[in-house]
Design a protein that fits this description.
- The protein has 118 residues and is mainly β.
- The longest helix has 12 residues.
- The radius of gyration is 14 Å and the shape is globular.
């Protein structure tokens, strides 16, 4: 597990991104729905889409596991973790405090994302 955490830290901490989230190669960000206060993240083709989401406090993020291969959603700080899921199943988390919550799939550590709660 320590090796997975070190790999995850290296992948997320060493960035390589230029902060541009608007075009190809940049991470996309989705606003929460004004009507529902929620957002959905698809897990498909070994990626979280959108990779980064920004939501208000009290909103819910629902991850939909669209791949046939199992994945999970695991917070870097341990505040949430889904079971290993696939085939259209979902996992939802309601965020009750502001902050940045990086997460990954511990089965496939190259799959990362961030929930920003404002």
């Amino acid at each position: 597990m320590a090796a997975v955490v070190l790999i995850w830290v290296a992948l997320t901490g060493c960035g390589g991104g230029n902060g541009d989230t608007s075009g190809p190669g940049g991470a996309s960000s989705a606003p929460a729905s004004a009507a529902t206060g929620s957002v959905e993240v698809a897990i498909k083709n070994f990626a979280f889409t959108p990779q980064n989401v920004s939501i208000p406090v009290g909103a819910t993020v629902t991850w939909k596991f669209e791949d046939q291969t199992e994945h999970n959603v695991t917070a870097a700080d341990g505040s949430f973790k889904s079971a290993n899921l696939s085939g259209g199943k979902t996992f939802a988390m309601t965020f009750t405090k502001a902050g940045k919550f990086p997460y990954m799939c511990t089965i496939h550590p190259f799959m990362t994302g961030t929930v920003t709660v404002r």
